[in-house]
């Protein structure tokens, strides 16, 4: 097995692909552990611990699985790929309902490219909505479903800092989508 791995690195094209995949994995892990700006990391850790021990621990474990552990940590990649999956499902359903989208699908590759572009735009819109909701819940202290989190997770009162966190999470989703 080790010889196959060494042989793969001797092939220039395969080596580039392997190194690219490793770079993306490192980037994803880095973004999944880097907190969004303005987030009180110590309070988030305390709240996650309290939520995992509480009565809703199954729900929070499920949320953590779907986000790779990043959502409840309020990291840069907190939204993960879920807005893209949701946008993709919505557009697949709309292709059946909207005749213009159905015509695009029948156009072949050029139509499918256009539908993919619409999916990406819808992904960014959904990411904005989801990030706004998550940051608003964190700001109010209700992110963990009324679980007593002690101090606030995000206690910036400025609208600019609020928008910065939302923009950071949306940008993280765009990077993951790419």
Tell me what the structure shows:
This protein has 178 residues and is mostly helical. The protein has helices at residues 2-10, 12-33, 41-53, 57-66, 82-97, 99-106, 109-140, 159-177. The two termini are 31 Å apart.
Order of helices and strands: HHHHHHHH
User: What is the overall shape?
Assistant: globular
What's the main sheet like?
Answer: none
Number of helices: 8
What is the percent of helical residues?
over 70%
Distance between termini? 31 Å
| Poorly predicted regions | none
Structural category is mainly alpha
Work out the radius of gyration: 20 Å
Mean pLDDT: 78
Share in β-strands: under 5%
What's the number of extended β-strand segments?
0
Q: Oligomerization state of this entry?
A: single chain
In brief, what are we looking at here?
The protein is mainly α. 72% of the residues lie in helices and 0% in strands.
Search tags:
178 residues, mainly alpha, 0% strand
What is the fold's blueprint, element by element?
Blueprint: H1 2-10, H2 12-33, H3 41-53, H4 57-66, H5 82-97, H6 99-106, H7 109-140, H8 159-177
Helix pairs in contact: 3-4, 5-6, 5-7, 6-7, 7-8
């Amino acid at each position: 097995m080790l010889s196959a791995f060494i042989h793969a690195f001797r092939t220039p094209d395969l080596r580039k692909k392997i190194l690219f995949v490793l770079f993306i994995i490192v980037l994803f892990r880095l973004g999944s552990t880097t907190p969004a700006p303005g987030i009180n990391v110590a309070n988030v850790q305390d709240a996650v611990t309290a939520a995992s021990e509480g009565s809703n621990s199954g729900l929070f474990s499920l949320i953590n699985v779907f986000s790779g552990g990043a959502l409840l940590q309020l990291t840069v990649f907190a939204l993960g790929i879920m807005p893209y999956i949701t946008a993709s499902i919505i557009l697949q359903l709309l292709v059946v309902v909207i005749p213009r989208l159905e015509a695009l699908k029948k156009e072949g590759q050029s139509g499918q490219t256009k539908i993919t572009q619409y999916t990406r735009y819808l992904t960014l819109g959904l990411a904005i909505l989801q990030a706004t909701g998550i940051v608003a819940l964190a700001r109010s202290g209700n992110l963990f479903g009324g679980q007593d989190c002690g101090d606030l997770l995000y206690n910036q009162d400025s609208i600019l800092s609020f928008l910065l966190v939302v923009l950071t999470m949306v940008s993280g989703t765009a990077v993951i989508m790419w």
